[in-house]
Amino acid sequence: MALGTMSAQITDFSNRADPYPLYAALRKSPVTRQDDGSYLVSTYYEVRSLANDPRLSNDLRNRAPGAGGPAVAEEDTNLPPSFLFHDPPEHDRLRNTTMRPFGPPHSPRFLHDMRDDIARIITDLLDALDGKDEVDVVEDFAYPLPVTAICRILGVPREDEPRFHGWADIVASVLDPSQGKEKVQDARRELGAYLSDLIEAKRRHPGSGILGPLAQETGPNGSMSTAELASTSMLLLIAGHETTVNLISNATLTLLRHPDILKRFQTEPGLVVPLVEEVLRYEPPVQFIPFTVALSDIDIAGTTIPKGAQVWLLLASANRDPKRFEDPDRFDPDREDNQHLGFYTGIHYCFGAPLARMEAQLALPHLFRRIKNPRLMADPPPYRANPVLRGPRHLPVAIDGLAA
Amino acid sequence: MRLVVDLNRCQGFAQCAFLAPDVFVLHGGEALLFTSRFDEGLRDQVEQAAAACPVQAVLVDFSDEPAKGAEGHVG
Ligand code: HEM
Ligand code: SF4
């Protein structure tokens, strides 16, 4: 499928390692119309305002017939769309139901109580690096951590975890506007069938994790159907697999590229808190949202986005907008008032943000305390194909062994 | 040490209540309650909550000045 000129360049793999010059060029005008009729929004205040605008929809069924732009829908007749692809009131019903066992107001301590579990997973992964003088931070650490964590949070049996990896990898490629959709359909079907069986089993034996209590919601008086819970679980699984890995890898890469900050971090582990926020601004794991749809004509920054048009919100570009962030291309963990859009904003603000933050805030100090004298072996490292969920495919780092 | 939530900024994202459940409590899905005085033991939680607030509405003073009000409330 032909993409508009700029969007084609953004998705072009050769720009994956450094898309930021493209964003800088785009920011010359806040809203850019593509040849295919889609619109790219690149500046901070315009992205934020549209994120909070009820005239912008996440529901792909609102796209005008024959509208241009890449098809990135969960176009699938087996399962209903997840709440990411719903507008209110359905979005709120599904999101609020899912929140009940996961966070406040009903379960304010659920995640907090997972801290020790997550720290344990981290220690086990790092212990396994003993004796190595080269590690792949992605394969050995940043990928297995969130995978294990999200499986624990959902309550997926450990022995089933390996089967997920393949499915999740493929299903997450729906967010890649340049990918075909056939393989995705098959993977979604298999994963959907597995999850429906698991929900059935959890209805009788809830076990640990949030799927048990959510399975209870699928009864006659509950607030979601089994199919809705299956697609919600799929969303959580994929979001848990394919995003946090990039936060940890991007943070590691950025620290290794900034030796002064790394040195400071090694003696001042509390720096991780603002540092993670700055990575979310500077190298956001979700680069852009390519699928929102205008429900009516929207006048913004001198442009009218027509009803039915597809709108791309370029979070990574907004995060480098010099009108909002001073010296935006500088990585600065001491930056004040860092209201980045790395987790988006408005009603679709990342559901898993507290989990992702907790994982990264625990993982990075442990990693950099244990690995001795880390050196990047390839800069830039090889990247994943996906331009939306962007991050290194491998991150080879040479080390002088492991501290106790 | 004490904190205050800027009422005009807070949009109820609840990020603070996830990361510092001993300090911030979401009441009925609407109101945010918080303890404005806290001690060293809660410092990490408060730092994490303040950094995570998407609109940077949590304002923290880590000095040891005794504070006046003990409870805060955001509608
Ligand atoms: C660093 C890691 C992460 C980043 C950068 C991130 C980023 C985002 C962004 C930008 C959105 C908005 C998408 C949109 O509206 O189109 C989003 C939504 C979402 N995220 Fe995350 N995410 C991360 C980790 C997670 C994790 C670990 C989970 C699972 C527990 C998760 C679950 C979700 C869900 C369910 C939504 C949909 C929210 C809604 O539609 O209301 N995310 N995330
Ligand atoms: S203080 Fe910030 S994080 Fe807490 S509820 Fe308000 S907006 Fe959300």
From TrEMBL, chain A:
Keyword Magnesium: no
Region listing for Disordered, in residue ranges: 55-82
Top-level lineage group: Bacteria
Molecular function via GO: heme binding; iron ion binding; monooxygenase activity; oxidoreductase activity, acting on paired donors, with incorporation or reduction of molecular oxygen
KW Metal-binding (keyword) present: yes
Key words of the record: Heme, Iron, Metal-binding, Monooxygenase, Oxidoreductase
Pfam families per the UniProt record, alphabetical: p450
InterPro entries: Cyt_P450, Cyt_P450_B, Cyt_P450_sf
Family assignment from sequence similarity: Belongs to the cytochrome P450 family.
Annotated protein name in UniProt: Cytochrome P450
Organism: Streptomyces triculaminicus
From TrEMBL, chain B:
Cofactor(s), names only, from the UniProt record: [3Fe-4S] cluster
Name used for this protein in its record: Ferredoxin
Alphabetical UniProt keywords: 3Fe-4S, Electron transport, Iron, Iron-sulfur, Metal-binding, Transport
Primary role: Ferredoxins are iron-sulfur proteins that transfer electrons in a wide variety of metabolic reactions.
Annotated InterPro entries: 3Fe4S_ferredoxin, Fe-S_cluster_ET
Source organism of the structure: Streptomyces triculaminicus
SUPFAM superfamilies: 4Fe-4S ferredoxins
Superkingdom to which the source organism belongs: Bacteria
GO terms assigned for molecular function: 3 iron, 4 sulfur cluster binding; electron transfer activity; iron ion binding
PANTHER family, per the entry: FERREDOXIN
